[in-house]
Amino acid sequence: MKTAVKMVLNSGFQMSPEAFEYLASQRDPDRLVEAALKSLRSAGSVPLVLERSHFEASAPETEKKDGSQPCGCVPEEVFGMHALVPDLPTPGPAQRTLAYPVPASLVGKNENENKNEVERNGKDAVEVEEIRLISGLERVTIKGKASDFRDYFRDRLEALSSILRSRADVSGAATVSQVQYGIKWHKVKFIGMVNSKKEFRDGTVVVELEDKDGLVKVTFRGDDAIRRKAARLLVDEVVCILGATRNGNSIIAEDVIWPDVPYLSRSPAPATDHHYAVLTSDVHIGSKTFLKDDFERFLGWLRGETDDPRLNELAVNTKYLVIAGDLVDGVGIYPNQEEELEVADLCDQYKIAAEYLSTLPERIRIVIIPGNHDACRPTLPTPPIYSDYASPLYSMRNVLMLGDPSFVNLSGATFLLTHGRGLDDVIPFLPDCNFREPQKAMVELLKSRHIAPIYGEKTPIAPEPKDRLVIDPVPDIFHAGHVHVEGIAEYRGVLVVNSGTWQSQTKYQLSAGIVPKPSIVPVVDLATMKAYELNFS
Ligand code: D5M
Ligand code: FE
Ligand code: ZN
After folding, report:
1. How close are the terminal C-alpha atoms of the chain, in Å?
2. Which pTM was predicted?
3. So what CATH class is 275-527?
4. Of 257, 255, 235, which is closest to residue 429 (Cα–Cα)?
């Protein structure tokens, strides 16, 4: 019971007396807590106080009785083949955390293959190979009017406020426009969006926070701890400020609370056998600096062409290959790019990409999202790569083309996939972050619960009615690329992976002092969530 209660409190929740009584009457209270926390995490928005029902729902008998999925995902709609994708309706707010099963036809499975899998694994292969799409196929078109931006930022404020309010330490927080100035040195606690940030010579930082009806000035000065928090604050992110009113128009900050992810001890994903997800990105096929030999060696390994039994074991059990953008180098991405292209035609680049990927066994399901070099619109969120250009990929039965960002559950592990363009914008503003260790900045994005918090830098954002760049639900694995430097971190039970590149240093990168770390591939064991790094250079 002690462990169970500790787990609840460490995760930022409180527990009702009925819930406590119920847990105390159970044989394995810590297991129940673990299961309940896991299912709450997959459900996205979380309550402040855990009730008896939260634990009851996680009891194994209940699960068996009604056959419901632990995360409450409703299989409302079944996707057909890729051809159906452009006709999908714009998802409404209620669909944010819904999951859809992707039928076997979409991921290309045939009966014989199934039979072999069943024989090898001794269990039902359909269950093992489950791919559930949470989001990533939306195609929302917007006009980009001023009112669209207003509504977009209002939704961002609302979504991140609601994540903040699920934290026990934010309970009772007001909003910016509810802050009362009347009394001198009156304690205040409120949630708002950072509107601006100014640093003065003496180290004082003044931040303006806003909500839809008001604006307050907050001053950060004093000890190192509060200065560090001020330094970490990003414009356009949403936080909770604790402080005191000083006079009629300003507040002295005492603490900042970010939305963050709740701490959850990781229990292994439902995959019980060692199934691997191979994560990569930034292949840049078509570029003169594409490391063809290394990439071919990598594909050879996935096909099982290696003498090393340990490496072969990883390849044979690889279920998924995830490509987080910049599959090709594209055309017209930067001035004079043609001088650095080996293949000048965009369709030819995708043809070559499909030829490469077609050499892999069909049992490996390939998930591809767009990067800024791919054939797609330049704004985030980005729908899947245009089928007009990448038709050879769309014809592959084992390829799933998704947008940026995407939430997809592979064999029980929820992946957040994004190319990572937001990293270019946040790294220069984040203390202790740099382009040599992009995984550190990715951890900061998890704390902000947003993949592109700063508006108006390099990454254009489409003002859709719902802010799909909010990190919700909390993923098991956060996978990005773009920076061309491979790196892995673990943060509060989330495996954070930047999957590097297959491109050597470009002229631009040389002039900007960017040193890529190419040809290294992170491989994740979905049963243990351990990541390996394989070097193909
Ligand atoms: O981006 C690879 C990395 O190089 C990423 O960190 C951005 C940086 N990069 C590349 N080209 C530019 C330009 N023109 N301006 C600023 N930063 C750049 P990739 O998406 O592969 O080009
Ligand atoms: Fe790239
Ligand atoms: Zn990129």
Report:
1. 51
2. 0.80
3. alpha beta
4. 235
Distance 494 CA to ligand 1 centre (A): 26
* Any atom of ligand 1 within 6 Å of the Cβ of 424: yes
Give Cα separations from 218 to 62, 105, 246 (angstroms).
49, 55, 10
Check if 468 has its Cβ closer than 6 Å to any atom of ligand 1: no
φ/ψ of 448, rounded to 5, equals -80, -15
Asked if CATH classification 3.40.720.10 holds for the domain at 150-257, the reply, yes or no, is no
CA distances from 253 to 192, 204, 208 (A): 13, 11, 12
pLDDT in tens, 157-191: 999 999 999 999 999 999 999 998 777 889 999 99
CA distance 16 to 301: 53
Tens-place pLDDT, residues 377-427: 999 999 999 999 999 999 999 999 999 999 999 998 999 999 999 999 999
Q: Atom 6 (ligand 1): residue with closest C-alpha? A: 483
Q: Are strands 520-525 and 494-499 parallel, antiparallel or unpaired?
A: unpaired
Residue length of the chain: 537
Find, among 433, 365, 372, the residue nearest to 401 by Cα.
365
Domain(s) of CATH 2.40.50.140: residues in the chain: 150-257
Query: What residue's CA is closest to ligand 1, atom 7?
Result: 483
CA-to-CA separations, 352 to 28, 53, 282, 375, in angstroms, rounded: 54, 53, 15, 15
